[in-house]
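lol forgot to send this yesterday, sorry. struct tokens for the thing we talked abt
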């Protein structure tokens, strides 16, 4: 007997039920009225058939998120409460306290009382008894072994306890890509939102035609939708309508006196699985990038310079989306660790939502503006004595602040970028003027969202000549913005986009992470391994048009691009380059360091952004370390780790 039950339970994981389409037509169209009456019988009960949420896959088809098989535990209180020892027995096998189990029982009793009290008093007692004989969900995600197996193989020890197959959202790579994938949360947390979803048919599409409004209300009162999860961040939120599956309905025969279900089940509405989404992300590279930034608080991105495909986008600190799927693992306090952690803010996607002073990395914009506005040529020299002017005592070169000296005479775009000379860019910005600087900051994508398919992207901020509070724009503002300081902020995603424009010949691409998705068209494919075993329909595939637009030609002169690219190469490969003596110095790449002052006692933001390989670029990348200090000392070594991995992988 025990072996037979174990075999049956195991087969729940493997055997789908076929041939429901004709049956569905028969039930809904021909016999619809008969079934509505049948449902109201005390001998039959209607229940939901869970529908799997769509998978999220990386560019190579590796699964990043899926609905896996799980088990739920239901209680028939009329049976369970007959023996006071049941609480101790069940608590022991579930490894929960008796108090926790008693609390769940109390919640179920409260639901039953509320349902009964909605009816006339002369029906109250009859309805109360009926609901006491109805299985109510007590616990989700019960372990297959030993919990589910033990309960199913020893029914004499667990009267009134029913194990049912269910689905559980699972993220196989844990924290990897958490800010991309996002997480799920209970739809019932916000009562107003929950009621809106009910009204819009989010959980009940097609139900009214079969069981009527009263039938839907009965499901709601019994709490059948209380444990439904919806997207709260990342792709789980923004593509919830694509990923979300529609539950089905079935009628189950039950023994009113034993609380047992028969094998006789009639499917009224088959569940409809959610659609899959495929990303541009390479999960192997994503893991490497996340490992590389573990020691910093910040972000890193790798992007294809030709079409804006994001291969990796990471933010640290991060979170594990598995922790948000009930029940919360022991020892994990979601609120304390994640949601209300104001010190490290792990839920913030710093790659797109964090905005930072750019510092010297913005000198690439100043160089572009100065050359394109013909304020200077690639050979135009400026002298760096360490100070811009005696009249502007705070506008010094970094080399003066550190060594009380300057870079000397004959500084050009090449050496200015190579040595990150503030005085050179003060002068370049001055002769260009604020109009030219702001024009090219806008053209290169700063001060506006990139449109990447993730929620909560920040536009950051680029000032205008009239936007400064209570004062007019002055030369000091021009000098500040020329070196990426003052009233300016950028996001890492904007910065990698700018660097790709320098690398790809002057085209501004639109960053995107969606490669493809599965939805409703004419093609079809068999259901994936994680679908509910009641689902036999094929899943239609739609080739979703990628949201990326054609790259925008900025019409930057080739002479300008060559001069800037050579200067960025010198940063890494020539003596005196600010990153030459770092780990990135020997790697086939070009880039720019940045150390952005933030004011107060906190250290500067450390930046490094570039492209690789140098002669035939394919990827742009950026690293930022919040208050990390030196771009060369902190961000460049992290970038070296990432770029080295990319180039090594390209060789294979």
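and heres what i got for the seq, position by position
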């Amino acid at each position: 007997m025990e072996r037979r039950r174990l075999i049956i339970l195991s087969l729940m994981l493997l055997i789908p039920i076929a041939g429901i389409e004709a049956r569905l037509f028969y039930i809904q169209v021909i016999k619809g009225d008969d079934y509505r009456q049948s449902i109201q019988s005390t001998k039959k009960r209607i229940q939901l058939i869970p529908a799997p949420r769509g998978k999220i896959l990386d560019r190579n088809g590796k699964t990043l998120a899926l609905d896996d098989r799980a088990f739920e535990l239901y209680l028939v209180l009329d049976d369970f409460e007959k023996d006071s020892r049941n609480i101790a027995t069940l608590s022991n096998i579930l490894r929960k306290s008796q108090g926790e189990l008693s609390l769940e029982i109390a919640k179920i009793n409260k639901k039953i009382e509320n349902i009964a009290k909605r009816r006339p008093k002369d029906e109250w007692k009859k309805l109360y008894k009926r609901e006491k004989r109805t299985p109510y969900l007590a616990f989700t995600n019960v372990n297959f072994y030993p919990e589910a197996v033990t309960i199913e193989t020893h029914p004499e020890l667990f009267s009134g306890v029913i194990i049912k197959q269910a689905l559980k959202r699972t993220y196989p790579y844990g924290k990897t890509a958490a800010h991309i994938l996002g997480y799920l949360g209970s739809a019932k947390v916000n009562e107003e939102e929950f009621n809106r979803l009910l009204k819009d048919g989010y959980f009940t599409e097609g139900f009214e035609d079969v069981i009527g409004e009263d039938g839907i209300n009965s499901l709601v009162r019994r709490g059948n939708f209380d444990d439904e999860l919806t997207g709260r961040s990342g792709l789980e939120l923004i593509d919830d309508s694509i990923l979300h599956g529609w539950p089905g309905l079935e009628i189950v025969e039950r023994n009113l006196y034993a609380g047992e279900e028969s094998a006789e089940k009639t499917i009224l509405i088959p569940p409809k699985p959610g659609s899959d989404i495929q990303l541009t992300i390479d999960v192997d590279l994503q893991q490497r990038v996340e490992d590389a930034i573990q020691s910093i608080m910040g972000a890193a991105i790798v992007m294809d310079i030709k079409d804006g495909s994001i291969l990796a986008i990471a933010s640290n600190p991060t979170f594990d989306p598995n922790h948000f799927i009930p029940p919360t693992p022991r020892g994990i306090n979601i609120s304390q660790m994640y949601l209300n952690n104001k010190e490290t803010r792990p839920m913030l996607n710093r790659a797109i939502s964090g905005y930072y002073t750019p510092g010297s990395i913005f000198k690439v914009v100043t160089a572009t503006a100065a050359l394109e506005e013909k304020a200077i040529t690639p050979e135009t020299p400026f002298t760096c004595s360490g100070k811009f002017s005696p009249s502007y005592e705070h506008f010094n070169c970094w080399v003066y602040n550190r060594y009380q000296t300057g870079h000397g005479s004959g500084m050009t775009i090449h050496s200015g970028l190579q040595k990150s000379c503030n005085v050179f860019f003060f002068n370049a910005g001055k002769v260009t003027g604020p109009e030219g600087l702001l024009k090219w900051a806008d053209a290169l994508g700063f001060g506006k969202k990139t449109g990447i398919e993730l929620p909560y992207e920040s536009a950051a901020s680029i000032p205008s000549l009239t936007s400064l509070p209570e004062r007019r724009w002055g030369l000091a503002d021009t000098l500040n913005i020329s070196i990426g300081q003052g009233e300016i902020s950028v996001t890492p995603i904007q910065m990698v986009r700018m660097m790709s424009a320098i690398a790809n010949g002057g085209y501004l691409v639109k960053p995107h992470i969606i490669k493809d998705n599965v939805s409703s068209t004419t093609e079809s494919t068999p259901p994936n391994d994680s679908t509910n075993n009641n689902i036999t329909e094929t899943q239609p595939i739609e080739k979703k048009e990628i949201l990326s637009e054609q790259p925008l030609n900025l019409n930057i002169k080739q002479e300008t691009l060559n001069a800037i690219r050579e200067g960025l190469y010198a940063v890494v490969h020539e003596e005196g380059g600010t990153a030459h003596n770092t780990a990135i110095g020997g790697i086939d790449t070009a880039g720019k360091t940045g150390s952005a002052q933030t004011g107060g006692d906190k250290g500067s933001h450390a930046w490094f952004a570039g492209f690789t390989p140098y002669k035939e670029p394919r990827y742009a990348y950026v690293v930022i370390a919040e208050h990390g200090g030196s771009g060369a000392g902190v961000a460049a070594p992290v970038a070296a780790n990432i770029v080295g991995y990319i180039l090594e992988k390209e060789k294979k």
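The longest strand covers residues 63-75. anyway ping me if u want another try
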